[in-house]
């Protein structure tokens, strides 16, 4: 899993102006602060501008796995790459482009159109832009960053530890979501669905799957505002193998898969309808965490966990309102659930 940079001036001090890269990232990143920092810290770049048509471009690759270059970290939700050579920045422009990263560190921007972008042996950050894009991660690089952008996108992770984002997930993007398919593949991945009814699969590894998610959650003073976790779209989350964290709201359905999983439900009693559904809750192994809307007076937040009418499932209620259904777990109890009312849950 990628970790945010704590002090970029010390940890990522590289000379260069980064101006073209800043222009390209300005419409892609959730965080203006992170983009602005590139102007003083990013490595000198090798800029490639493709035509406005349907282009095909592949960066050099020696065909030997493990020879890739570069380091990928994040600052204020913005991917920051560096390598021994200048970082490549590829602008696909308009059209349905096919662009493959190679052995070097590279930022790849598909632009408008239905693009096909793939990570290489070096570290890379792929941005699909507008259109129905297909982004593929890497089996040989250590890390990769995939962001589908606008449109109904398909993101397929590889064996690397990757960040995969479906697209519209910034403040102000409400109502413009798309229905994305994201599969993390191997590795310990961070998957963010964005607005829209998304299908999110973790695959192997210990994954964090967030039905919405925002890059700005890396910023300490703005981290995890309650409203950032409610979209009321019907997302499907599947953790797969490993000990996963699945973040959802009342409109979503989640499957943990194998491992000790934590289901984190953001519940707003004043918004949306229905209850979160967890299809494979394992008593004594999995855990349910519920965050309530701090703008509502919940009183003592009376939690009741008991079997459903047919005795097949468990029903989780707070103050008489159904919050979650735990399928196949009629023996679940209040000891399997934690309830909180907090604006910033990481305190």
TrEMBL record:
Pfam entry (one): HemolysinCabind
Subcellular location field: Secreted
Keywords from the UniProt entry: Secreted
GO CC annotation, single: extracellular region
Region (Disordered): 49-70
Keyword Secreted: yes
GO molecular function, one term: calcium ion binding
Basic and acidic residues bias: start-end ranges: 49-60
SUPFAM superfamilies per UniProt: beta-Roll
TM segment ranges: none
Protein name: Calcium-binding protein
Source species: Maritimibacter fusiformis
